[in-house]
Amino acid sequence: MPVPDAPEPLIFERSRPGRRALRLPEIDVPEPSRPEDDLPSGWLRARPPALPEVGEPEVVRHFTRLSRRNFAVDTGMYPLGSCTMKYNPKINDTLAGLDGFAGLHPSAPDALAQGALALLWELEQDLCRLTGMDAFSLQPAAGAHGELVGMLIASAYHRARGDSARRRVVVPDAAHGTNPASAAMAGFEVVEVGTDARGGIDLEQVRAHADGRLAALMLTNPNTLGLFEGEVREVAQVVHQAGGLLYYDGANLNAIVGRARPADMGFDVCHLNLHKTFSTPHGMGGPGAGPVGVTRRLSPYLPGPLVRRRDVPAVAGPRYAWDDPGPESIGRVRALHGNFGVLVRAYAYIRANGGSGLREVSGHAVLAANYLAALLRPWLPASHDRICMHEVVTDGRALAPHGLRALDLCKALLDRGFHAPTMYFPLIVPEALMFEPTETEPREAIEALAAAVGEIVALAERDPEAVRQAPTQTPVGRVDEASAARRPVLRWYPSEGDRAPEG
Amino acid sequence: MPVPDAPEPLIFERSRPGRRALRLPEIDVPEPSRPEDDLPSGWLRARPPALPEVGEPEVVRHFTRLSRRNFAVDTGMYPLGSCTMKYNPKINDTLAGLDGFAGLHPSAPDALAQGALALLWELEQDLCRLTGMDAFSLQPAAGAHGELVGMLIASAYHRARGDSARRRVVVPDAAHGTNPASAAMAGFEVVEVGTDARGGIDLEQVRAHADGRLAALMLTNPNTLGLFEGEVREVAQVVHQAGGLLYYDGANLNAIVGRARPADMGFDVCHLNLHKTFSTPHGMGGPGAGPVGVTRRLSPYLPGPLVRRRDVPAVAGPRYAWDDPGPESIGRVRALHGNFGVLVRAYAYIRANGGSGLREVSGHAVLAANYLAALLRPWLPASHDRICMHEVVTDGRALAPHGLRALDLCKALLDRGFHAPTMYFPLIVPEALMFEPTETEPREAIEALAAAVGEIVALAERDPEAVRQAPTQTPVGRVDEASAARRPVLRWYPSEGDRAPEG
Amino acid sequence: MEELGPRAPYLPHAPGDVAAMLARLGLPDVEALFSELPEDLRLSAPVDLGPALDEASLARRVGQLAGANTAAGLICFAGGGVYDRYLPAVVQALAQRGEFLTAYTPYQPEVSQGTLQVTFEFQTMVSELFGLPVATAGLYDGSTALAEAVLMSRAATGRRGVAFASGVHPQWRAVVETYGQAQGLVALDLDGHADDVAAVVVQQPDYFGRIVDVEALLARRPAGALGVVAVDPSTLGVLEAPGRQGADVVVAEGQPLGLPLAYGGPYLGLMAARDDLLRRLPGRICGQGRDAAGQRAFVLTLQAREQHIRRARATSNVCTNQAWCALAVTIYLSLLGPRGLAELGRLGYARAHYAAGLLTRIPGVRLAIAGAPFFHEFALRVPEAESLQAAMAAAGFLVGPVIDRHTLLIAVTERRDRGEIDGLAAAMGKVLRDAGA
Amino acid sequence: MEELGPRAPYLPHAPGDVAAMLARLGLPDVEALFSELPEDLRLSAPVDLGPALDEASLARRVGQLAGANTAAGLICFAGGGVYDRYLPAVVQALAQRGEFLTAYTPYQPEVSQGTLQVTFEFQTMVSELFGLPVATAGLYDGSTALAEAVLMSRAATGRRGVAFASGVHPQWRAVVETYGQAQGLVALDLDGHADDVAAVVVQQPDYFGRIVDVEALLARRPAGALGVVAVDPSTLGVLEAPGRQGADVVVAEGQPLGLPLAYGGPYLGLMAARDDLLRRLPGRICGQGRDAAGQRAFVLTLQAREQHIRRARATSNVCTNQAWCALAVTIYLSLLGPRGLAELGRLGYARAHYAAGLLTRIPGVRLAIAGAPFFHEFALRVPEAESLQAAMAAAGFLVGPVIDRHTLLIAVTERRDRGEIDGLAAAMGKVLRDAGA
Ligand SMILES: Cc1ncc(COP(=O)(O)O)c(C=O)c1O
Ligand SMILES: Cc1ncc(COP(=O)(O)O)c(C=O)c1O
Fold first, then answer.
1. Nearest by CB to A74, which of B60, B69, B71?
2. Residue C155: exposed, middle, or buried by beta-carbon count in 10 A (0-12, 13-18, 19+)?
3. Do B3 and C111 touch (CB under 8 A)?
4. What digits encode the pLDDT tens for the residues B144-169?
5. What distance in Å separates residue A15's CA from the closest CA in chain D?
6. What confidence tier does B203 reach under pLDDT thresholds 50, 70, 90?
7. How many CA atoms lie within 13 A of D279 on its CB side?
8. Which of chain D's residues have a Cβ under 8 Å away from the Cβ of B56?
9. 10 Å Cβ neighbour count for C185?
């Protein structure tokens, strides 16, 4: 057990009037202008914001102590399916923090930012090679952002061809929630198709929607069941013949990186989650990066700006520059160049692995998942009895006879020093528990996880209530989400009951 | 309670043959020389050292998890008397890590290290101003190292004057253990003198030793009882009249920094603990820095090299260079220039505070100690009923009626989220508990500490056994130091019982 | 057949581990795990990405790329919505802790109280700054936050128009238009006064650095339209909270509050709104609740808005957000406090006005918009903006962005001291004299 | 009277706190707390140390000092016991954690298991590397560790002489002499063969980079004298452990195992010894024990040797040591493992020999000690060492230290690739040609 860490008060509760941490430079200019002399008083802040007033030692202690109330990849195994919680190399953080990157203003003239531009250009080439796509935009901030961009590209593509009846996007019922949400955000009607007995997309249902209204089909491969869509080329054929586009949700690329390429499968447009396959840290929820790749015919629609390389014979080496996209571009999808700091990390990860390293990454990721699946089988059978890819979705109904849900097993895992798997996703598997060990977990960690599951199942048989009480070893006990949502308390107020000091 | 952290295995226990973390560059030179071709085989390692074989993810997790088993200033209040566990500014770590410092080889030509030299020179000036001394050597690595240097200086001084009968160093019985140890290491005979009723050095006993054998007297002021030695000038007079030198152990300078100067009190030579007063982090036990300052007459004896400043009219600004000390120097006390990274931090701390800031530091340190002393009084009376300085030594016998020792109270404090005070030091106070809150603890932390003591005392009355069982909330329970020392196990061995794989 | 043991840098296995795992599965090699992939989809050889670099070589290679960005070494007076502020060491030291950096979305609140409490504190700070009661955990950046705010207005009002006050950052406006096009959103100018206006968008200070009269601009909005204000949050220790000037939704780019320039990202979109918009807000929201023992605990809440539950009918598609950036902002604002934030604003204000005074004394240089109040940034009318930017870079100063042939922006944060401002003015004077000569 | 609230940067109090605390004490002001200081000892005004700098100004000022150390930007072939190795990012990332950096000596083992376990692991690694069973938690640096080893030999043998093999680092030898002088220690050369020899000191590789025959040198020691070997620990993946070559005590400078150059420190002294010297060892030692529940726990042990218990009769005066540096070394060695350490040695070996080959082809340049085996460093005989060092610096290379008028050291670590070595040789050739011309 660690050093006692009591519940940490809110930083506002540590506040005392008149305390302060950071000092600022003195005003050093002669006859300094003052806002109150120049501006109407109504424009000026009437009451200072109730930010905390604390000393620097307290700030350090507060956030240090808060951090200790988190589970993280750096503290233990985090088999959260679909999220690829692999080890995040420390060197990548160091490199992203170099002055030449962290201190580079986005409006720097291209000539003075050649290193950053070269990095972006090389990264784009790398991603093209790994996916088979012809061009990438590195701007999207996350997977869902990439999906939106992809859907807007699909929309622009059909519009450009005068094909404006195509307002439908098909997604599998097992799809990640961002897929339908992104398609809807791009103005499409979303149609769900089912999953067949082998766990693949139901090809017949796809055929049923393969008509003049089909704009695109979104697929992840391996899919959210962790299974490879073996009929992906048939799907592509059906979609393409109907005039639609095939979108690849690259969230699961970790299973096949360096071994198979979405473009070869027939995908026209894709996003990648650099914070998954390319190991950039998840930062408690972000930032990530969700670059979008397209085949040649879709490249005019990419958002801009884009990095171009020119080989200048006069100069030693190539020159790089930002270029505006053409008139067919969907337009801008964010103010600046992308989550550059994340891109630096992904770039470094690719350089450190090389092509053969990345191939090993997927090999070991899939090996780990299958090994875990085999060890879990006595208690948590896989949803489908096939070789799985980088993750395995299990059926958590084993606990049901004891009146317990998948959630209970998850909470009991927390008590044993593991993060829980993803619960209740995909929606089509009852009591789904989705485990993704990743390639960076040593074998004995995988074995320990399986053993912990076995222990919990045994405990559930003996004493289901003990499992229902879990977790008890965590910073707080089981949190009542429902009641928190019923009467939402979304911020602290200076005094109890004071709900509108802003008014 | 934090996220469950199980006991962490030794890194060796995580080892599996064939695993590895860091990869090295390939050998890239033509026809590479190989040790086995050039050297007798007996010179070559017969069996590789049993270093751990682990992957990088495991290294990160192992040391992250180990860190979580530590208490630190960044996690909570650390009132460890005599050690000045104040807040360590993060900016100082950042600055010490700048490439221009961290990447500077110690044999860089002076002309290419002017920034480092200027910093050292300025730091020396700052310390001179703060102590009243005339010159400093920044080489000593810690307080005790400084003491040894100081004692060697005393020895050289007397020897240079042909005064070689002076082989005696007087220290108070309350002195820190390093004082007698350093004096002995420098070849002196150590004589202890007592402490008077007010908690000061016994002037009569000093007088009794003020003879031709007296080389030096070592004193810290405020002393290890946290009390100011009000008769320090009388002590100085006695020592000086007898031909001895007065040594200032600067470990407690935090009480008076910016308010009083050792040289003004009559001290001839001193060390400072930069890791205390000047807030460099203690790093689990070090590194620190223990610069030694002297008055003019002792400066020829300082160890070298020393930084010199030359004003070169031709160049803009001064030039700095390393200079060898004169022939009277005690010689070298370490291979290179000192714990430079620590010196950078201390320099930054001084610049951030300025003279008035440091004066506030001592003011608030003393205020905090007296406030704590007042709050503790009901349970832990101070050893002497006086205004204390930056720390207060209390008499822990309050618990004795319940069969408990000061140690028990300390362990119970650990359970309440505080580090313990220093126990059983100084040796002259029965069941001594020495509290040093430092100036960087907010008032409510001091109050909470006192309240925790009160709570423990109340518990001791009710249920002494509960206190004797403490701590129970810590990563391990009470450790049996005696049995660990009886059959020392000082390293891990590859296999149980295998005590000499080296043989 | 592949070698069993890994050569890739971050794989923990020894060859024996791989063999044992394969044996348990009854498989001959790793390749066999991919037997479900149609053979012709399987790459037979590794993708050619150049050699794998050991860490030292990697650090050297990437370090060279970093070093080639000479703009990072210039004294930065560039603005345009992104500012070179001083980043306190504490922010990095704390935010880099592995427990923050390598955790993900707090799906398991019991082991994510650190994340959740930070988010709750962040929401409180945003709510305070903006003067609106409900804030979210954040969005990708300021521009996408603005787009989400406009989409939310569209959904809330059922209307299709968005009216932009003049001076909205053109790139932000472009993002709104990209997001909006799919939903049939029509961009209007504020003074079009159309009936079908879902939202009026005001930027404060605006793209040219001008402080605008938010209250007056919002007062001009058609009835029923929402007032959306995009604000530079670093001004809010000095300027009134837009929520108290009539805004229904306020968004901001969080970069000026403790995030590095980083060539454009990762940054952070801040958003707060009126209470009645709560269930329309995009992205994560953290709430306070209780654990089984009644102890205070934090938890993601109102998730029924979100894509993982509501799917095609979610209020937004956002999943992975910018939580770590929100942490940095929370630490930064904790260090500053209310007084610090006010001082920060006043210092930039004083220095920017001093700089404007010096620069406009240079022949050929004047404020692009004379007489308008500005905060810490202003648009400068100069003879030739591109070439001036290049010449200033050669003299050691980064200015810009260039916004048209004769205009560029100058921003002066608390990080630029008087000596640097004097240097800027002297250099610009010299550059223009030399160009004129 | 002083202002009550602090203006200093790291003091948490508000003015009200100070007033309340003073009120509780019945004191009018902070000044009153110092009434026990004789009035004329009290400074009436702050010491003049220049203005207090805010963090941004501080960072700028100290940054300028760092920037003025142009040697840090050179390609480093300097040696002399300190080597420019690649520092893996993991070392800093982990060692900087506040729980390590801001803890102190583990006096309370129950809340210091992190520190203690690291120390135990460190001791194990040192013991393994050196081939001796008992290692300590570390000393200030290699040179003071050597001095402590010699003092320990003096105490263990009751003898007064210390015999140095040729090639012991002169600065290390000087430190031994400084420490020893007070205890009447007499320095001898190894071949003096005096009776009264407490210790024979051998350095491996020696100051000139030579690999010496430790076994043979130690075999020449007078009976009863202890064999003390100072070793570059980064060679010990390749070279035999001195403990298996007859050494009784082995010490080392830990810098080459993961510590930055840092202009000379903080570094780390490593020490291990024969079992029977255990109770004479200087400084902290960590042992394995049990807690009340019988669980494994670590604890400082054998403290009866130490100053805080034994006072004037302690084995050493060391108190604060270099624990954090030992942590860095422990992490570094964990990353390297046995294979990495061997590769590190072999790589430096190969590159140094390649470099020596190229450099000695330059007219006027030869190995100072021809025919001697060397590891990753060698002494080069050149026309004029000082001026060559300066000229090489101008060409972008740091070489040295200069050890006499015609000799300087060249060290080649795993961090210097072939291109840099070729560059070094080309530059030196040119410099010497130009000087000759
Ligand atoms: C299968 C799948 N698709 C899409 C996404 C969305 O990616 P992001 O969270 O980066 O927006 C996720 C991420 O969780 C995912 O798992
Ligand atoms: C009063 C006193 N003197 C001397 C020392 C020795 O200093 P160091 O630990 O830096 O060697 C200490 C440190 O603990 C001390 O408290």
1. B60
2. middle
3. yes
4. 999 999 999 999 999 999 998 999 99
5. 10
6. very high
7. 8
8. 90, 335
9. 24
Residues from chain B that touch D297, judged by Cβ atoms under 8 A, are: 476-477, 479
Report whether residue B143 contacts ligand 2, using a CB cutoff of 6 Å.
Answer: yes
pLDDT of residue D192: 64
Handedness of CA A251, A256, A262, A265 (dihedral sign): negative
Q: How confident is the model at residue A265 (pLDDT cuts 50, 70, 90)?
A: very high
Ligand 2: centre distance to CA A107 (Å): 53
Residue B347 located in a structural domain:
no
Contacts across the B-C interface (CB distance below 8 Å): 55
Instruction: State the nearest Cα–Cα gap between C12 and chain A, in angstroms.
Output: 5
Block residue for tokens 């142009």: D70
CA of D52 to the centre of ligand 2 (A): 28
Give chain A's end-to-end CA distance (angstroms, integer). Answer: 46
Which DSSP letter does residue D101 get? H
Yes or no, beta carbons of A1 and B475 under 8 Å apart = yes
Chain D interface includes C191 (CB < 8 A) = no
C175-198: average pLDDT: 86
B175 within domain boundaries:
yes
In this complex, which chains have at least 3 CB pairs below 8 Å with chain B? A, C, D
Q: How confident is the model at residue D15 (pLDDT cuts 50, 70, 90)?
A: confident
pLDDT at A202 over 60: yes
D2: confidence class by pLDDT, cuts 50, 70, 90: very low
- Per the structure, the complete domain to which residue B166 belongs is given by 133-337
How many domains are there within chain B?
A: 1
CA distance D201 to B218: 34
For residues D213-218, average pLDDT? 97
Place of tokens 């470094």: A348
Chain B interface includes D74 (CB < 8 A): yes
B241 burial (CB, 10 Å; 0-12 / 13-18 / 19+) is: exposed
- Can you say whether residue A199 is alpha, beta or left, with left for phi > 0 and alpha for psi between -120 and 50 degrees? left
**Interface contact flag, C334 A97, Cβ < 8 Å:** no
- The per-residue pLDDT for range B237-277, each reduced to its tens digit, is 999 999 999 999 999 999 999 999 999 999 999 999 999 99
Check CB contact under 8 Å for C9 and A342. Answer: no
Residue A157 inside a domain? The answer is yes
Given B19, B56, B91, which is nearest C89 (Cβ)?
A: B91
Spatial CA neighbour of D250 closest among D283, D272, D226: D272
Which residue has its alpha carbon closest to ligand 1 atom 7?
A143
E strands along C145-225, which residues? 161-164, 186-189, 197-204
User: Which atom of ligand 2 sits closest to the CA of residue B220?
Assistant: 1
pLDDT in tens, C226-255: 999 999 999 999 999 999 999 999 999 999
Cite the beta strand spans of C226-304 per DSSP E: 226-231, 249-253, 269-273, 286-290, 296-300
Contact D86 C55 (CB under 8 A): yes
Q: Which of A336-340, B61-65, B208-212, B308-312 has the lowest mean pLDDT?
A: B308-312
Measured between beta carbons, the chain C residues lying within 8 angstroms of A96 are 262
Please give the average per-residue pLDDT across D297-314, as a whole number: 92
| 3-state DSSP percent of chain C in helix, strand and coil, to 5 | 45, 15, 40
- ipTM confidence: 0.97
pLDDT at C240 (0 to 100): 98
Tell me the C-alpha to C-alpha distance, in Å, between residue D199 and each of A233, A267, D142, D250. 79, 76, 17, 12
CB contact under 8 A, B112 and D38: no
Q: How does pLDDT run across D90-138, given as a tens digit for each residue?
A: 999 999 999 999 999 999 999 999 999 999 999 999 999 999 999 999 9
Domains belonging to chain C, first-starting first, are 72-87+342-434 (3.90.1150.10), 91-331 (3.40.640.10)
In a domain, B430, yes or no: no
